Amino acid sequence: MKASDTPNIPVKAYFASFLGEGTNQPRWRAAKSFRKTPSIAQLITSAVICCLALVPLAALNSKILRDQHWRAFAGPLGASCFLVFAHPQALLAQPPNVILSHVIGAVFGLIAQEITGWIATICAVGLTLFVLELGRIGHPPSGGTVIVAATNRELKELIGWKMVAVVAAGATWLVLISCVFHNMTKQKYPRYWWMF
Q1: Before 190, cis peptide (omega within 30)?
Q2: Is the pTM here over 0.90, yes or no?
Q3: 20 to 30 Å CA-CA from 190: which of 5, 84, 95, 145?
């Protein structure tokens, strides 16, 4: 085989794709072209509402789940807050994505805990990703819910499968607060309630 017979692989173009869109612009200018930056007042208001939305969840869950177990769900629900309060128009922040993804993640996580082992946990995360994307209800924080449900044995012994209801209630609460907040501030949320 001669050197001229080898296929022409556009290596430079391939690695240039890692730079993202707007490679001929400064980074800050390219980022501005993707979405409008909210005002400082909007950012402060969203941050305050986000904190206020988590207070009742923390209080209720610390009573039900004891303090050490509330921290387990603070990560996934906090990440969901970021999406629903800072990016309400994103597809990932819509109600079916937020609520159903956390519920499905908790179910797969609890099933993985029944099987035990880190391989089951990894498979549960992959299966959750597959099901959520197949149903077009992806929501990245649900990956955290899967891992929490699969690895927190004490929490499962404390409330068992009621963990699914706790996660569903928390996600629903965040969506409801987001609906009230965003519609009071003249931002339309949600874009849709059901994906069909």
Answers
A1: yes
A2: no
A3: 145
| Structure confidence by residue, pLDDT tens digits, 20-51 | 655 455 554 445 545 667 788 888 888 899 88
DSSP string, the chain: --GGGS----HHHHHHGGG-S-TTS-HHHHHHHHSPPPPHHHHHHHHHHHHHHHHHHHHHHHHHHHHHHHHHHHHHHHHHHIIIII-TTSGGGSHHHHHHHHHHHHHHHHHHHHH-SHHHHHHHHHHHHHHHHHTT---TTHHHHHHHHHH-HHHHHHHTTHHHHHHHHHHHHHHHHHHHHHHHTT----S-SS--
